[in-house]
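WARN retry 2 of 3 for item q-0093 after timeout on previous attempt; input resubmitted unchanged.
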Amino acid sequence: MRKSMLILSLALMLLTACQANDPTTDSPVITKSFPEIIEPHNPEQAEQSGDVVVLHGGIRNEDKWDTFMKNVKKKQQDQVRVTMYTIEGGPIIQELIYDGTAIQSTYDNSRDAYGSKQGMKTDTCKGIGTMKSEQGHIFYVLTGCEKEENPFWLPKL
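OK item q-0093 returned
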């Protein structure tokens, strides 16, 4: 009895090990988690968390955006969280995850007093481009988005 239990256990371990290492299965994109959002998500906390912070009068952690853009151009996986603050000081958070071919955008304005309380909205986009406003300002924008409900924009650095 012990011998058959031992053989059965070994067989199960071998089958499990082979299944876990099967290179033919599609593995999901492995990304690191974004840092936890500490409430209230003020600009200093967002900056310390590594967010690209957009305030009236400036941008903090520009290097994070530069690195993200370089990786997108090289078709290397990367992610960045951008937190923009309204005139009233409410944070609008957008997380971008690039998998090497497309960008998944998650938009969350639930912390803004005038924002939606419906939760986060996601979209999948083909890339990032630039757009010029009527006032002549240039912005980064997501392009080729499936839904285009909550457009992403960031002043060009």
